[in-house]
Design a protein that fits this description.
The protein is built from eight helices and 20 strands.
Length: about 300
């Protein structure tokens, strides 16, 4: 049975769930999970967890992401991207200097507040926002704080002119960031309606575009019997947490899921990963109720356990 992280390049026109469905048929296995949704119009890195690595999917989802997007100034849409109907337009001639744009990008770096788009999967009163939107209903959306670690202007030149001005940016951000909403916010700061005209995810945590296989590549690797060599170890999904050796004395207690005295590293880190023979055995966190103790959050078992 296959086990590990499959760095998939999701192509346009597919949902993340479509990718999982296709992979279950290609690989003949059910224990497959994706690590965060990408809209059908977006292509890019979508790490897929196979076998026991599915237990680590939430950690990959929580990792930072890197995107390349094209921001279009002059027109706003109902979906905040190019797929939606125009809701506001200003086609008067515009002229922005590179320093003006960079100042706006800098002002949106750090912790910022966003309101999720109506066409999004965020739930309000038990119903996803896009379900309200499809019914023509508008509901109050809770704002959220997200972290923008870096925004870089990729387009060259000193002036950006036209009735609808476009430029490409690179965004490194934390979990829950809507890049299309960021494009709208950039437009607001420049004084015009805006939308995101294209988006590519180039990295998800430690998983990069150059690591990725398309669905067609996966089929070819399967047929050649070389797919397992293309998988990345589950430990890469846990790379943000310190690794601690589970020695022969401690290992049986960890495998039994025992509550243990808190490791000193938990005073500085939210989680630690116990490993044996270079393989992750369990993720531990501070006990939420018992001071000075820690409890297992995820159990991976020994290397031979590939259920």
């Amino acid at each position: 049975m296959l086990e590990g992280i499959l760095p998939l390049w999701k192509e346009k026109g597919m949902t993340s769930h479509d990718c999982v469905f296709r992979l279950r048929k290609i690989l003949g296995m059910k224990r497959i999970g994706h690590t965060g949704t990408l809209d059908p119009d977006v292509e890019g890195v979508l790490p897929i967890c196979l076998g026991r690595a599915t237990k680590a999917a939430e950690y990959v989802t929580d990792m930072g992401k890197t995107y390349e997007a094209v921001v279009s100034i002059g027109r706003a849409t109902e979906t905040e991207d190019s797929s939606g109907a125009t809701v506001e337009e200003n086609l008067e001639p515009k002229c922005f200097t590179v320093s003006e744009i960079q100042a706006v990008l800098q002002s949106l770096t750090g912790e910022i507040t966003q309101i999720p788009p109506m066409y999004s999967a965020v739930k309000v009163n038990g119903k996803r926002l896009y379900e309200y939107a499809r019914l023509g209903q508008s509901v109050e959306r809770p704002s959220r704080t997200v972290r923008i670690r870096e925004i870089e202007l990729l387009s060259g030149g000193q002036m950006f002119e036209g009735t609808e001005v476009e430029f490409r940016i690179r965004v490194v951000c934390g979990k829950g960031t809507y890049i299309r909403t960021l494009a709208v916010q950039i437009g607001e700061k420049l004084g015009y309606p805006a939308h995101m005209s294209s988006l590519v995810r180039t990295a998800s945590g430690p998983f990069k575009a150059e690591d990725c296989l398309t669905l067609s590549d996966v089929e070819q690797e399967r047929d050649r019997g070389t797919l397992e060599a293309a998988l990345l170890p589950v430990e890469q999904a846990l790379s943000e947490f310190p690794q601690v050796l589970a020695d022969d004395l401690l290992l049986p207690k960890i495998l039994n899921g025992q509550v243990l005295p808190a490791h000193p590293l938990l005073s500085e880190h939210p989680r630690i990963v116990y490993c044996n023979g270079g393989r992750a055995v369990a993720v531990y966190r501070r006990h939420p109720e018992k001071n000075g103790l820690m409890k297992p959050e995820k159990m991976f078992g020994m290397a031979e356990d590939k259920r």
